[in-house]
């Protein structure tokens, strides 16, 4: 199984951190300095839109966003093309890129208060209604390999990771899964495991 | 997980003709990727499907310090001259006269999520645009829209664009009659019509239900129709005040009155005749002077009218001209819920302020039209779905986009208004201030447009923020003013007709570029965009909010009685205004304040280096080239049929290929031809064979006879005979099909040569005329 598109969102730990005004400057600098190892093209500011994409960094294969969806600030990683490999490989790559961007933002001085991302909740969406509708059947197809990946990512030698996968939304939405991790692993370890 | 394609999944839901067009476009995508299609031809083809370019698609982007190359993959494939294939683009989606259903909103939301950035953008022409769309995704995007009755055909390019109309058509107290069914009829009559394929530039049409309100803006359209009635023999006859030759752009022109009263049955044929005259006589080389406004100006309206009426007299009767009059209720809306009264007690907080600006009481008692104010014309996919659900619950399919970049919901029972407001509020769509000074219209500007000079959207966003903060403190006279911003002189933000218009320009200050906006005053929004303002000077972008404050303060302090803003400007004179804001033209040095050297919403140092070649005035590709290209595809399909053993289909397709090429050439001679094979053959004989235009210099009429002979014996004829009839019949048929394909290919080559000779003759005649 493989995906053509995937979105992952990390949530900011401090709900007061909703000021997106620095986002445009941060992303313009990422383009200028080639901070990410992929082609980034432009910055789109949608901070005027209610619970919208906030500030988007538009790339060729992926977008990154200081996202305000659901009214909750966070970092969105949206893979939209040239997504190769089997699902496990794809998840590893996507999670890796997400957490790399998260690390950059966490060390970004112009974001005040500082953005720290929760490592116990991730929103996953598959915006590909042709192949994945937002139904229990589609979720049942995606869940096992997703669990396998999460087990590997969050597992510790002495215990099985505990996480919960919940399909959310209506059939009109893209396939949406909320991942809650009871046995969260610290961000540094996560990044090491993702090879960042 | 299902294994399928959108084409297969939606096969039974897409109208047949539309599906074929999208397949043909997808085929063009394959062909250009295989190096078998000219990129200029593809560019015009994709523009005619609404697939537009965006800033940086030439692979160059200034990062605030220097221009850098964007290393798009596959750098040898282009979707237009200098336009990289892999660069994101914009998809424009036509919403004829703004009417959009809940089901359509759902699909638009899906497409925004899957192919774009999750945002739908309403334009100043009632379209919806999606940005950052990859060209490879566009066929499926088009299919999904087609399945719910939306076409992107001719959304861009040198053809008839989206037809706009008052968003209150049908519910307005002041309209003469509902123009919706007329806008609907004209939309689908002109869509893909042969007579609108050979323009030198775009053509924009607007309808208005009345003369004095601004909703239709017919005064600055290529063609405008204002509803009118007259009494004839005791009966009320419907018609239109019919205007032509208006336009904005760098030099706006008011439309000229073509007919004080054009009867409704003449709306379609006269418009067809106008289009034919424009196609025939309109400028095609100099793109800057190719809009119809220049043709009307050069000829004068009287001569233009004469030519149109002459053309009208020659037109073959088309039953569609009047068929639609039998059912003018096709666009009618039925309220979902009973009429009512808004309760006076227990209203939610904020409701009254919202209702004052956003609720319009319809002519139908007990019903209201609610304006959903969209900040900068944007809404998310989630908001779009929520709005669709709200419509399903309260109004049914009564939604319309507006040229002020909002959406209106008609037929809301007044009793439901408080609940409706709360539903909108829940999803962030209950912003008050519709139609006020904080409801600012802007084109995309430097955000995404290749022609943008300054950040019109950034400016609009900043003004909006500031004006919303002081909303309660704004003088009522100022509150009802309109602000519009365009990123450049092409005026897509319609700044010419605003009370306060802003037009993006650039200035050199101390060797550095600084973004500015020309302040344009004196425009009139009412009376269908009744008058155009003039620029009185350029202000640095970062001082525009101050300029707005100063000018509006002057107005409040100096207006007499209930003097309009336009009258005030006229009375005190632009010199006085200019003097009042003169100090705001000063730009501090870079060392004093570097913020002046960036634009609103962009932290990069300002440059005009990111401007590119616009596609609005795209390459003029004669329609005949599209026809010949389609013919080539059909010949190829005939080969595929033959390869796969479908002999009859191969024979038929090869015949159709010749018909397609013949049709293209016939139209190129300026003659009409229908889609009927008999008519095509007859017209070909008369205009191309008997005139020897199609004759090959060496082979004479040989290739023309391939078509004429095939038509005489029938497309699927084949020689049959011999002892083993079935076997020999099959072999003979395959042979006949093979021969038919060869003849079609030779015919097509002859068609290309004919077109070349015709083009040469035109060039020789032009050169001879120039020498004289």
Characterise the protein shown here.
The complex is a heterodimer of chains A (196) and B (772). The model of chain A has no long low-confidence stretch (mean pLDDT 92). Helix content of chain A is 29%, strand content 28%. Chain A has an eight-stranded antiparallel β-sheet with strand order 2-3-4-5-1-6-8-7, with helices on one face. Chain A is of the alpha+beta class and 196 residues long. Chain A has helices at residues 23-33, 87-106, 136-154, 187-193; strands at 6-12, 40-46, 54-59, 62-67, 74-79, 117-126, 163-168, 175-181. In chain A, α2 (87-106) packs across α3. With 772 residues, chain B is an alpha+beta fold. Chain B contains 24 helices and 24 strands. Residues 717-725 of chain B have low confidence and may be disordered. Chains A and B meet through α1 and β2 of A and α4, β17, α12 and α14 of B.
Question: What does this entry show, briefly?
Answer:
The complex is a heterodimer of chains A (196) and B (772). With 196 residues, chain A is an alpha+beta fold. Helix content of chain A is 29%, strand content 28%.
What is the global morphology of chain A? Answer: globular
| Unreliable segments of 5+ consecutive residues of chain A | none
Distance between the termini of chain B: 71 Å
Most residues in contact: chain pair: A-B, 39 and 54 residues
The structure class of chain B reads alpha+beta
Mean pLDDT of chain B: 91
Largest sheet of chain B: 5 strands, antiparallel
Distance between the termini of chain A: 25 Å
Order of strands across the main sheet of chain B: 1-6-9-8-17
Structural classification of chain A: alpha+beta
Succession of helices and strands of chain A: EHEEEEHEHEEH
Count of DSSP helices of chain B?
Answer: 24
Q: Characterize the quaternary organization of these chains.
A: heterodimer
Largest sheet of chain A: 8 strands, antiparallel
Total beta strands of chain B: 24
Amount of helix of chain B:
25-40%
Q: How large is the count of helical segments of chain A? A: 4
Categorize the overall geometry of chain B: globular
Indicate the low-confidence ranges of chain B by residue numbers: 717-725
Radius of gyration of chain A: 16 Å
